[in-house]
Amino acid sequence: MAFTPMMKQYLQIKQNYQDAILFFRLGDFYEMFFDDALTASRELEITLTGREAGEAGRVPMCGVPYHAAGTYISRLTAKGFKVAVCDQIEEAGSGRGIVRREVTRVVTPGTVLEGLEDKRHNFLLAVAGADKEFGLAAADVTTGLLLATQLTGEKAAAMLLDEVARLEPAEVLLAGGNNGDKLAAAVQSRLRTAITTCDAAVFLPDGAGRMLDKHFGPAWAQRFGLHNRPLAVRAAGGLLAYLNRTQKNDLRQFGRIQVYSAGQYMMLDTAARRNLELTASLRDGSRWGTLLWVLDHTLTAMGGRLLKTWIERPLLVAAEINERLDAVAELAGDVFLRDALRRALNGVHDMERLAARVVYGTANARDLLALKGSLAALPAIKSLLAGGRAALFKRMCDEMDEMTDLYRLLQTALNEDPPVSVREGGLIRDGYHSEVDSLRMASRDGKKWLAGLEAAEKERTGIRSLKVGFNKVFGYYLEVTRANLELVPADYIRKQTLANVERFITPELKKLEETILGAEDRLVQLEYRLFTEIREQVAGQVRRIQRTAGAVACVDALYSLAEAAVKGNYVRPQVDDCDRLVVREGRHPVIEQVLARGEFVPNDVRLDDRERLIILTGPNMAGKSTYMRQVALLVLMAQAGSFIPAAQAQIGVVDRIFTRVGASDDLAAGQSTFMVEMSECQTIVSSATRRSLVIMDEVGRGTSTYDGISIARALVEYLVCRVGAKTLFSTHYHELTDLDCLPGVRNYTVKVQEQGEEVVFLRRVLPGRADRSYGIQVARLAGLPAGIVERAREILLALECRRESAENTAVVLETPDAARDGGVRDVPVTAGAVLTELASLNALDITPLEALNFIVRWHEMLTRGDENAVRECRADF
Ligand SMILES: Nc1ncnc2c1ncn2[C@@H]1O[C@H](COP(=O)(O)OP(=O)(O)OP(=O)(O)O)[C@@H](O)[C@H]1O
Ligand SMILES: [Mg+2]
């Protein structure tokens, strides 16, 4: 089949990018053909057309304007597609045949530059290794952040998946093959992300090492602390190889690898991060109602991203935590400092992403101006920090480079109000470059210059009628009438003789002409060239920009925590290495925000070497789950360096927070509700240490009562006797409260008050145990039909009776006929019915005689089992 030459070129290029949608530049459009066109028109909702492709006839086509391509590309990558961008790499018409085209960049979900959320990273992740040995590298091409770590040991696979879930990569890169497939399935069962498999060779030690040599130069292993982390090296090498292949760019924004180890931060597994709703709500995954939502008052995107990382990765070293707390304390205590900092930070743009765009060569003049504006804010921030006492301020102040040289360059070189496009001129400021100035003058003031020249020549020659003219053939000329010819000076060059006049040119006039004609064109080109030179100069300083941006981010995150502390009326926790967790009048940071002011009831907690494990009982809706999450959140906040909502707190650093909270299905991962519950418990008992904090909310409720009680009891015994972790254990199995015979186990309960039928929730957590769950009252509160509630009450009373007397209740447990018919009012005579009535009797409102009557009647009912007696009895009420 013969295709047109252009279509042949298309197909040839497409061959190498089978897994991507090819954006093929044709004039002012990027066009897509064949299946790509079908996919793109569907996904982007753009019109599908067709194009003659030669003998093949019309083939499907659709296209997007080149200047809007970025948005379309990011829409496609957001849906998990890859886009290969194929550009014309020579001017149209400059050669013979069709223009040369090449793929200049492959945009994948993990390498897209546009359309991203400001305050979160967009990671491309690479995983090397298998089984008990993994290397992991994560890159954010938009900021230049490059992380690597290595996970080994029995739990390596689980830790890897936790890290993947924490980083929430847009794309995961794996070596193909069996192991890769298994890993891909495991990752995909946990989060929605694009998986790219690539040649296993890039992850091999040799290839990876060479890649790092090439990118970072020699001695990278020592510089980044990678010498004894071969798997991290393999992951990082594979990652860079992929970036090289897709970005076709020098990737200068990745100046270093930040190597970290699992033991450096508080470990939070996926369950804990989810359950505590740190950055995404359980309900819909949004930010609203999360800890981050409460704490995020950052003013810059960089600060926002860093704060998110702090919350997801609390610290373990008390000194480091206190360093943050010192800074937060200083800011929280100084409204003027905070205010000045807010004003300064407000002027800072996303320097990290700007720098990356500069390196990529996609930054326009407005981006550079945004960078300039950010640089302008630095001196103020630095001087505020220099005046501060906190050590962290001093450090960040040292990290910050005002970059006055860059600022001056941008200030002198760039126009104040440049257009979006860098190919239309209007970028360079007057006075920066003499040629730009004269070109600009030429196009603006050309006429004036000619008039000036004309006047000067008149003066010089004394020819009063001399004038400057223009025609298409000769361009500008000086015209002299025949009468004045003898006055023409020697340097005039004759060009044309007409009847009455002669036309001349001079070198000066020709120079002027050159300047005027095409000045506009040349100006645009020169401005573009100068702009790219300036951009290149800025790109050369990317390291300085990133370092400074990092420091600004840190200051912004501290500012945010201080702001949250002031707004929320938080206190500074005392954080140290003691084995105690004592909080006075703690509050749940999120729930207290959602409730009306002052409505949240504060509670204490104490866990130390005497009180190790709290069994928390209390009615439904009393606030058990809230209390337990609150304790976990307060610890986490403190270790992230935040103040906490409490009156006072001492928090001994915990190594890990475990949560087993609520029932969640993970059907996709092939686990039932109860199975999930049990495997989470397995993780806890096998990984928790004495320094951990364990939250277990109603463990065992997903199975039959007796199984549940038995499992719960065995877990408590194990946790307190073998693990020794600080534990909060809530349950409705009131039988468990007798476990307080074990050393370290204490009973606490969330108090309620009974008022007749009603329960009043006091929300106070106090020593003691609950004996009832008031589940039926809560069911009634929830609006369950009265019939059902009544019936439940009867069944409950009967069950309780049975427990007491083990007789006389068989009748009630049989489903009554009436109930099957939908009505539950007419129940058979039962002990339960009598008790129900007794319960609903207002004892203070009846006379002793009436009371006696009731007793007699009930006695009769119970001994006779007489239905009618019950009815009579009811009628009396
Ligand atoms: N200390 C408190 N102050 C004010 N309101 C609270 C407090 N604690 C909890 N609440 C409110 O009570 C509601 C129920 O709390 P929670 O879910 O913790 O109860 P629970 O005891 O775990 O109930 P269940 O046994 O049904 O799981 C919360 O959604 C919250 O609105
Ligand atoms: Mg609960």
SS-derived structural category:
alpha/beta
Q: In DSSP terms, counting alpha (H) and pi (I) runs of 4 or more, how many helices?
A: 32
CATH topology of the largest domain: Rossmann fold
Distance between the termini: 95 Å
Low-confidence stretches: 807-812, 816-829, 866-877
**Helix percentage:** 40-55%
Strand content: 15-25%
Shape: elongated
If classified by CATH, what would the architecture of the largest domain be? 3-Layer(aba) Sandwich
**Sheet bearing the most strands, described?**
6 strands, mixed
The CATH C-level class name of the largest domain: Alpha Beta
Function: This protein is involved in the repair of mismatches in DNA. It is possible that it carries out the mismatch recognition step. This protein has a weak ATPase activity.
GO biological process, one term: mismatch repair
Family: Belongs to the DNA mismatch repair MutS family.
GO cellular component, one term: cytosol
Could you explain how this protein is built, in words?
Pfam families: MutS_I, MutS_II, MutS_III, MutS_IV, MutS_V. The protein has 877 residues and is of the alpha/beta class. The protein has six domains: 5-107, MutS, DNA mismatch repair protein, domain I; 124-264, Nucleotidyltransferase, domain 5 (2-Layer Sandwich), CATH 3.30.420; 296-403 and 541-567, MutS, DNA mismatch repair protein, Chain A, domain 3, CATH 1.10.1420; 434-517, MutS, DNA mismatch repair protein, Chain A, domain 3 (Orthogonal Bundle); 578-636 and 653-776, Rossmann fold (3-Layer(aba) Sandwich), CATH 3.40.50.300; 786-876, no CATH class. It contains 32 helices and 26 strands. The strands form five sheets. Strands 3-4-2-1-5-6 form a six-stranded mixed beta sheet, sandwiched between helices. It is elongated and about 145 Å long. Adenosine-5'-triphosphate binds at residues 591, 595, 599-601, 603, 618, 620-626, 763.
